[in-house]
Amino acid sequence: MDLRLSETQEMFKKVAADFVKAEAPSHLMTQWYRTKETFRPELYRKAAGLGWLGMLLPEQYGGAETSLTDCAVVFEELGRGPVPGPFFSAGVLAAQIIFEGGSEEQKKSLLPVLCKGESIPIPAIADKAAYWGPEAVETSLAGSAGGFVLDGSKRFVFDAEAASSFIVAARAENGEIALVLVDRASAGVSIRPLVGFLVSAAEVTFEKVKVPGANVIAAGGGWQLLASALEKALPILCAYQVGACQEIFDFTVEYTRTRVVFGQPIGRFQRVQDHCVDLSIHLDAARYATYEALWKLDSGLPARASVHEAKAVASDGYYQACNFAHMVFAGPGTDYGHPLMAHSVLAHTLYQYLGTPPHHKRQMMDALYPRATA
Amino acid sequence: MDFSLQTDPPGIAGFRKEVRTWLQENMRGAEHLRWSASWSTREDQEEYDFRRNLAGKLGAKGWLFPMFPKEYGGAGFTIDHQMVLETEMDRYGLSLNHVFYTLARIVAPVILKWGTEEQKREFLPPMARGEVSVWQVLTEPQGGSDVATCQTKAIREGDHYVVNGQKTMVGHHLPPEFLWTLVCTNPSGARHENLGWLHIPADLPGITIQHMHLMMGIKNTVFFDNCRVPAKYLVGGENNGWRVANTHLELEHGGEGRVGVDPLVERAVEYCRKTKVGGRPLMEDDRVRETIADMMIELNTLKRFNQRNFWHRFTRKPHPYGGAQQRYFQRMARLRNGERLQQIMGCDALVQDLSVHEVVDFEYAVRTGPGQLHGGGTLDTDRLVFARRVGLGRPTKEKAPETI
Q1: What is the ipTM score, two decimals?
Q2: Quick one: which of A28, A260, A300, B88 has the fewest CB in 10 Å?
Q3: Quick one: closest CA in B to A69, which residue?
Q4: SS3 A55
Q5: Dist CA B83 CA A308 (whole Å)
Q6: Is A271 part of the contact surface with chain B (CB cutoff 8 Å)?
């Protein structure tokens, strides 16, 4: 047992922390979230230059072949921002889908440009808002002369606006789930941002979009491929949420020292202290669930249940951390100009992204205790 | 990060084999005993005798306090050996800390930190040999969680302290050899500066122990009536009791850490597999599965908090707020899990009935919910300590005391 970060990880952490301070300081970041201009191409290119896109990939495809924990340390710092952009959705999840499911040719043509930030493939998976799972894939993929035709609509696509292409889950004619790459500029692709108490999400519609045969990543078994990619990718997203929780904890503690009412700093009030205790529990529950799952994956141990547990705990933790911080900050924390609002909106969005905590709890149970009647 | 409890470095694998074989031999005859956490309130003499005997055998090898120096009865081992012993004991549902019900696991480290060389040589080896049952005797009727308000007086007379006063809600049904306690050595001194810490032989004249029948079983009130305690039993020096208390309380209040796994979920799952309604096991029921998932996640979180605290303790880098956080969360999770058990298994969660539960102890798990909310200080003291350590509303943070 050793709960320290390695020297390399400490170095990654420092570089990422400095990056966040310099490139996404709080005042700019809150402005991006407020105006919903969350894709910052200049930031994304710089991150590519630092090697943070496709970090997990082998060097031959442009990656750095780091361990999952190494990558997670970087994402934890990005989460402190919270730095917006498709760092995870393209740089980790899409990269992993292509790496695990793509042909050698696809890997060679798609991955190096992904790592350079020149191509941004964004997964577009579930058709329904209220459900995450293979059943929610209804978009159809029908054969046609010289390729396929894609027809359907994806209700909640995170980072859609940054996309140069989409990795779309669709039903093939035999009922199997296929994954195909669709250029954003293809005729019939339309993107409609979702407006409300969420961020960086859009509904993406594919109306009779032509897909060349060469763009098929998986003709069938797409959900299994996705599940396998998610098993490695999800803990990285969890680490991002851990960083966000840590940032919220830190600025909330600071606020309890500086905010004076009723003649004393609010941190002297035990009710306020209670909120901070609860906040810390969600933070540390998320932190250790995440890093334990990462350790299992990096050590080659069975990790499926742990990964689902981590997603449940980290997404719920981020959500609850925001709520407890709102109890401490009261009115000022509800101003879109306040960093807590950026977190709060993002926490609600990530609660939904790639399955809610209740979904992942069910998956955890199914992994540990398969149903007799399944 | 490495969360593994069993990646034995070179040279340790042989030790694990040795411990495993030793335990196989020495656990024989215990097959019918129930290793549930509730043994201390069940008054099962056979189980207690087995445990004390086992502690003696472990102690003879220095394995009860493996990292303690040999001259104090330890084995002079490393943290790796400690992990081997902890994890091998855990395979039997036993914890190295609780082989039998004694507070030595906390008392010994405190003596190691605060005792004189003479005290260490005299007090530690019998504890390390597993021969001593120590009760923590802190709570007073008026004081409750406010232990520093200590009214039990210990006035120096020559080479003795004369102790008068009363402690309550302490110990259990089996007699102690030592009482580990905070006393007021200077009644006119300032708060926190007026205290001393005594390690009192329980058979001295002037000590009366009276049982109390409480929610969690038997506890006691201890009366000191002109009890003359030789001065050599004062630990930490004159009027230094509060600093000794801080080390003690940090260990007791979560800083001790732990690497064992709570078997409650596995046992609940077993129950839900066996119990059928309309021919269908409870384990197939969606609501049951969701309830078990919540229980499991909280217990896993607790396991990881415990492991973190264990690691911080044995690497000698006390976590700033980990103890208080773990302890608050543990008690709230236990309360919630007690309710969850009732939701899953109905009145079977409330019945003390070996024929229903075999080795399972759901009733105890439910009863400890409200029953253990306050042991060693209320939930509110945990949150208070957290606030000071994190520096809520304060310009400075209180440092976690160093423990051993």
Answers
A1: 0.96
A2: A300
A3: B1
A4: coil
A5: 28
A6: no
Q: Please, how many CA atoms are within 13 Å of residue B170, restricted to the half-sphere of its CB?
A: 28
Q: Which two tokens stand for residue A343?
A: 């977190």
B161 touches B200 (CB < 8 A) = no
CB count within 10 Å of CB B122 equals: 16
Query: Would the pLDDT of A165 be above 60?
Result: yes
A125 CB-near residues (< 8 Å, 6+ apart): A136, A137, A154, A168, A169, A226
The CA distances from residue A226 to A229, A295, A358, in Å, are 5, 21, 19
Nearest CA in chain B to A366: B289
Report the DSSP beta bridge partners of residue B180.
B136, B199
Distance from CA of B275 to the nearest CA of A (A): 14
> What predicted TM-score, i.e. pTM, was given to this entire model?
0.95
Q: How far apart are CA B29 and CA A316, in angstroms?
A: 46
Q: How confident is residue B42, by pLDDT bands cut at 50, 70 and 90?
A: low
C-alpha torsion angle, residues B286, B291, B293, B295 (rounded to 10): -170
Closest to A246 measured CA to CA, from A201, A288, A274: A288
Q: Please tell me the distance from the alpha carbon of residue A165 to that of residue A182, in angstroms, as a whole number.
A: 5
Q: What is the pLDDT of residues A92-142, one digit of tens each?
A: 999 999 999 999 999 999 999 999 999 999 999 999 988 899 999 999 999
Cα distance between residue B323 and residue B142, in whole Å: 26
Rounded to an integer, what distance in angstroms lies between the CA atom of residue B310 and that of residue A147? 59
Touching check for B307 and chain A: CB below 8 Å? yes
Tokens of A27: 């005042």
Q: Which of A210-214, B22-26, B94-98 shows the lowest mean pLDDT across its residues?
A: B94-98
Mean pLDDT (whole number) for B114-139: 96
Paired with B207 in beta bridges are B224
Closest residue in chain A to residue B324, using alpha carbons only: A277
| Residue A82 preceded by cis peptide, ω within 30 | yes
Strand partners, A260: A265
> pLDDT tens digit string along A11-22?
999 999 999 999
H helix intervals, chain A: 7-23, 26-34, 41-49, 68-80, 95-101, 104-115, 222-258, 270-298, 304-329, 339-352, 357-368
Option in B297, B390, B395 nearest A309 (CB): B297
Q: Give the relative orientation of helices A357-368 and A304-329 as an angle to the nearest 10 degrees.
A: 150
CA distances from B159 to B74, B149, B228, B230 (A): 30, 25, 9, 6
Comparing CB atoms, the residue among A267, A313, A371 nearest residue B387 is A267
